[in-house]
Every structure is written in structure tokens, then in C-alpha cells.
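Aim 2 progress update. The chain analyzed this quarter is reproduced below.
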Amino acid sequence: MNKRRSFLRQAGLLSAGVFLTPAIISCSSNTENAEETATAEADADAATTETASDAVIGLQLYSLRDQIKAEGIEAVIPKVAAAGYKEVETYGYSKENGFWGLDANAFNELLKANNLTSPSGHYGLDPYLGGGNEELLQSYIDAAKTIGQTYITIPYLGDNLRQDAAGYKKLAQRINEAAKKVNDEGLKLAYHNHDFEFKQFGDTTGYEILLSETDPELVKMELDLYWAYRADKDPVAMMQEHPGRFVMWHVKDMDKNDKSLNTEIGSGSIDYKTLFSKVQAEAEHIFVEQENFAAGMDPYKSISQSHDYIVNNLLNS
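Predicted C-alpha cells:
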């Protein structure tokens, strides 16, 4: 998939081409050409704005886990669409329970009915990474393909798998093996971080091991920006050092008074304007995620506020 800025630029050029080509063929006057050029530029700007606001912002559904439990996924998904989102990232799939009680086909129909797509899902891979369970990985592949996902994303690593540098090296090899299988099925594998990966082991960290010892062509990264900042890392420097690796982002803000709390994008302490201005083109998909909400905050209002802030203040900044 084209990087965001490149895609928007191409969309503008293509739009301009639609209007300019007839003028060139008919050898229109300079005035006519100028008018058509102005029209093309206006339409290109409109296309860029529409693409930015309608096509790129997703929601990690974990943000609404309590609402899903209380209301059911069939009630929650329309509200996600109403908040402006066009993509969702799933979590918690199992062959027995599907996606919150819906099998993959039924969940896919629910997404389609609400004009949503799901490019990525979080799938718990500890049993596979710990030494086997090929059937589990295959079940995830089947589900992801059914709902049109591109990425199977590893969301977390159990404590027993990451005790030391040697453990991370073993994990890197298992992740490579999973990535090959996933790639053979026409999908891609990604890894989502927290902050524990940045723990030092001598002169390295678990995250550095995962970055250096997994195949960069097969294993992509979903960078959780909040957790990177929480670990005192510089996401901009990370992406500049490893271009093309960090294809997805989790965007959530940090409460100004309590780092352990999330808040709506633009309301916290993370300087997202600088980040977006420098490395926005690195992300294929941007997912809002909020793990907790302030007392009295309506989660649906919260996700809408975060969506609108990104669209109006950060995209193409």
C-alpha cells in the first residue's frame, strides 16, 4: 500500500489529469486551460481532503471492550461508524467464539453494512510462539482472510516468553516462522509493542532484538506511540532509523498529570503535531486506541473527539 502522503499526492495528480487531459487534446485557449487547471486543483484538494478524512482513521475496538460486553458488537459497530471511523482493528478472536459471538462471515457482513473495513486484527499467539499450535495460527489466518484483513498482529507477549535476551531471540525466530506461513497465505504479520519490550538486557533491549532479528520484509511493526513515549523512547527517531518498518500506529494520548492514564488525542502531553509533521508518511494505517476514560466521559464522545482532532489538526500537517 502506498504511504499516506504519497497516496494523497498521487490522488491529487490523478484528479488533475482527468480534467487537464481534454484541454491538452483540444488545444484550448490559455484562458480555458487556466480555468480548467484551477478546477482541477480545487478538485484535487477536495479529493485529498475527502481521502484524509474518510479513508485513513481506524479504531482499535479494545477501546470499547466494556461497551461490547454490555451492548453487544452489533450495537457498537454502528456507533463506531457514526463517530467517523472507516476502519476497525479487532481483538480477542477465537475459533469457538468468533468475533464477540459472531462467526467471521457474520462479522464481515456487519462491517460491510456499516461501511467499515478491518485491515488488521490482534490475535493472541503465545501458544504458537511458545512452541507449537499450528492449528491456532491457521484458525487466525482463516478468520483474517474471511473479513479481508491484511495484517495478523501479535498484541502481547506473556511474561514466561520474555525473561531475557535469549528468550527474545527465540521469539524472533518463531515470529519469522509465523510470518513465512502468514505470507504464504497472502497475509502479513505485525508486532504491537507495550513498554516492557524496552527493558535493557545488557547493551540491548527486547525490542531491538525483535527489530534486528526478524525479517523486515515479512515482519512489520505496529508502533504503539503512547507506550513508546511511556518508555521514554523517540518514535520519530525510531521510524527514521527503520523506514518502511512501522506500517501501523496506535495513537492514544497521555494524561498530563498521570502518565498511566489515557486521554483524548490532542488533550494530553504527547506532541502529536510534531510527530505527524515528520513521519506521517510512514503509516499505512492509524488506529485510535484509548485503554481508559476519565470519570464521566462518554466513550463514544471520546472516540469521536479523537477522530476529529486527528483529521482536522494532524493529517498532512
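Residues 30-55 form the longest helix (26 residues). The chain has a mean pLDDT of 87. These observations will guide the mutagenesis experiments scheduled for the next reporting period.
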